Amino acid sequence: MTTGPVIGTKTMVVSPHYLASAAGARILQKGGNAFDAAVAVSAALAVVYPHMTGLGGDAFWLTYCAGEGRVRAYNGSGRSGYAVRRDCYAGEEEIPRRGVRSAITVPGMADSWSAVQREYGRLTLAEVLEPAIGYGTDGFPLSPDQYGNSVLAGAALSPEAAAIYLPGGAAPAAGGRFVQKQLAASLRALAGGGRDAFYKGEIAGEISRYMRASGGYLTREDFADHEGNWEEPVFTDYHGHRVYQVPPNSQGFTALMALNVLERYNFGDIAHGSYEYYHLLVEALKLSFRDRDKVLTDPAFSRIPLERLLDKQYAEQLAASISFAQAAPLSSDPVGRDTAYAAVVDDEGNAVSFIQSLYFEFGSGAVAGNTGILLQNRGSFFSLDPGHVNTLEPHKRTFHTLMPAMAFHDGKPAYLYGTQGGEGQPQTQSLLLTRMLHYGMDPQAAVSAPRFVWGRTWGERTQELKVESRVAPEVQNELAQAGHLVRQVGSYDGIVGHAHAISIGENGYRSGGTDPRCDGAAIGW
Predict the structure, then answer these.
(1) Is residue 185 within 8 Å of residue 375, measured between CB atoms?
(2) How many CA atoms lie within 13 A of 398 on its CB side?
(3) How far apart are CA 433 and CA 242, in angstroms?
(4) H or E, element range at 508
(5) pLDDT for the residue numbered 458
(6) Maximum Cα–Cα distance across the chain
(7) Active-site residue, selected from the candidate residues 236, 339, 401, 419
(8) Could you confirm whether 434 is annotated as catalytic?
(9) Which of 47, 107, 384, 444 could tie 513 with a disulfide, CB 3.0–4.6 Å?
(10) pLDDT 10s digits, 373-401
């Protein structure tokens, strides 16, 4: 299933759906830059990968403008509504994971498109949304991944959603033409009226009307007051590279903590794919998850001690606690895993690494009225425990799994990488970077090589270490003997996420790798 990387002399686009990658390439050929192309890819994914992402979800961005010479982060996550309080769920142990009462945070993605486009784009918003509008209006071949997720999520879809995604009561066949005219109309309104059409105009009006009629909590005021934020990224230095992540409420610092721990070890003495390699990564990540779960929430509501968590001396203490013979008995709460990561590099050296999501597959399962927009259920991760750091409060951002990454060398982008996968995101990112940096793998080889994912998914009681069957049997046995609860999954199993990466060589060529576990493509020229 593996091939070599796609190599472009000037540009590269990677995404989990080939039509979205093609949309970005079209915009670059039309004269747009990486920022224009990234918004085009993001919008196209909202149409052609609707089970993973959409206008009703959030997005996080890392941007590098060659002319400015700096990395910036954009937090495109939404806050809970002003009327959303814990007593809305009195008598319930947790927020419902599906339905309109799980859709309690304002979608932030449309705002993020406008922000990135306004700050750095060369074309108009209408121009970059054109491919997505075309896919919605005229249709596209439904992906195998969408078909599988439609079957999986069928019972969770509202009548409005089922009418779109399960016409006639069944999932459309993969490869058949799939049309979303209502969603295309919403995108057209956004293209014509800008972000205000979404947050202050007809789209906000229809979503809030649907909320009132369906027992939901978001109001027009919640939409009108939404605003994303440009922020300084968080970073650490790792083997001559500066690695950037989006700051909290993103979990991105978790991957930086793990790298600080891994820096204490000599990978020249650790064979790739060996027991030592997998065990070390799993144990380093478990320690960072332990600290993350204690502190991560909206930093406007609770201080997050990043200076301590990212301190190299603290990493040395964590590294000293790792046993190469025994897995630590740590646990973590389950989080959603359905997401879409993509990246773009253009011929001027601009680079964008971004990720977007509805949280669960098809999000809340609720389509808002006649908008064709699936609403996310990201807010269902809030806790109803008033003593929990991520407790539900009005106008608050929740703990967020989304975390695009960039690694720089000599002040310029060297690697852009990320993955779908909730809890698996920092795990797969650690695999990708160590493979490319320590073992000289190209992006495609790093993405395609066997992967693992540790943790508990919804409905499971155990903290399994899911390992693809291509991991050597003797390595799986060693991991089990060390105390890991090993479960073998498929050889290229979607449960380990859909990862993509771009590397920029010293010769300036851009190499792209996309995951054989999904429907993606790397396109360069």
Answers:
(1) no
(2) 29
(3) 12
(4) none
(5) 45
(6) 62
(7) 339
(8) no
(9) 444
(10) 999 999 999 999 999 999 999 999 999 99
